[in-house]
Amino acid sequence: MPTLGDVNRLYEFLRRHPTAVDGTWAFGLLGIMLLIAPSAQENAWPDSAFPIAFALGVVGTLRRRWPEAMLVASFGVGCAQLVIGVQPLPSDVVFLVVAFTIASRPHRGWSRLALAGCLLAPTLARVRWPDQGDERASVAAQVFGTGLLTITFCLAWVLGDSLRTRRAYYSELERRAERLERERETQARMAVTAERARIARELHDVVAHNVSVMVVQADGAAYVLDSSPELTRSALHTISGTGRQALTEMRRLLGVLRSEDGGPGGATAGDYVPQPGVEQLADLVDQVRDAGLPVDFRVEGTPRTLPSGVGLTAYRVVQEALTNSRKHGGPHVGATVRLRYDGDALTVLADDDGRGAQAALYEERGEDGLGHGLIGMRERVGMVGGVLVAGPRPGGGFRISATLPLAGAEPAGPAGGRAGACGADDSRRDVP
Prior knowledge:
By secondary structure, the chain is an alpha+beta fold. Among the domains are: 4-129, no CATH class; 276-412 and 420-431, Histidine kinase-like ATPase, C-terminal domain (Heat Shock Protein 90), CATH 3.30.565.10. 59% of the residues lie in helices and 10% in strands. The chain has eleven helices and eight strands. It has helices at 4-16, 18-40, 49-61, 67-84, 93-103, 108-128, 135-223, 229-254, 281-290, 308-328, 375-383; strands spanning 295-300, 304-305, 335-341, 345-352, 387-392, 398-405, 410-411, 428-431. The strands form two sheets. The chain has a six-stranded mixed sheet, covered by helices on one side. Strands 2-7 form a two-stranded antiparallel ribbon. Helix 3 runs antiparallel to helix 4 (67-84), helix 4 (67-84) runs antiparallel to helix 5 and helix 7 (135-223) runs antiparallel to helix 8. It is rod-shaped. The protein starts with a helix and ends with a strand.
């Protein structure tokens, strides 16, 4: 018993050999004529019918390979059939198939020519071979038969034209989909490139700042080398820690930033300004509150001195999250920001209770593939080896969580300056 695989293989074989399929049925009609000819007796086919049937078999076989030429050939065979007086044959079905084939092709001129033939051929055939019998009955039968045959020919043409329209529609959809996909990919690459260039300019200042600190400390150590050994030792310790931090930042950025950024002529001195960190988060929250968005900001855990890249990333994550809450959360949205210091990571959690966001805002490419969603945030978090999770919050709203590694970070001391948005002695502090 044939299996589904056998049926599929047969279908694939027939699809790959359309000419052989057409030849089989086209010359099969000629075979039918040969089989019924001995039993036809009084209505036996004339000898001239077989060349006509053979010619129609050739037309049917080659209809898909050379459709326009076969249309012309079918007109010629039809005219010969009328002139010789060969009455309708089984092979005349080829005329219907040719009309269908031409109508399914994109060339409208040939299709209109085929339609004209479909409208004219039944009338010519009825005039050439009128029915015999009572005159009134004959006229009625001729009108009915001619109309029915004309409808049959036109139906074949309409089916072919419908197939052409459907093919053109699907082809246009495929072209549009391919073009949109190419545009989205191009725009996404451009957004990533622009974002990386901007991050490169920002983090250039981070590395330059570390080097500047090392130079200043080295000059100070040289100045007090003889008079104050303790100050010299402290300066050397600062130089060592700052140098290690700068090397860590350089290793993280070396594989992802463009080599031409920061090269000669790549940027001017005015492009580089001090970048914010977690120390400025309280000011950022105040600015957002002044803009009308209620924000509950808390710091949990023991604050510590962060690598410059991690502090900048945390600041940008909170900034982008609050901006998105204000833009997409609705008129009465409220936001919550948590900064939690764990043993080896800094967790930044920002969520709101608004109306959430569409999937396009937090998918990989951002809204409309233009990088307006979270693509810049993902780039920043990825550069410092962190993980970003963004999506709708249970119960409504939107949540962004970033986990940033703190390799090499040290607890903040009196000489370390501010270590976040709260004091170094507080394990948890609410910023009003």
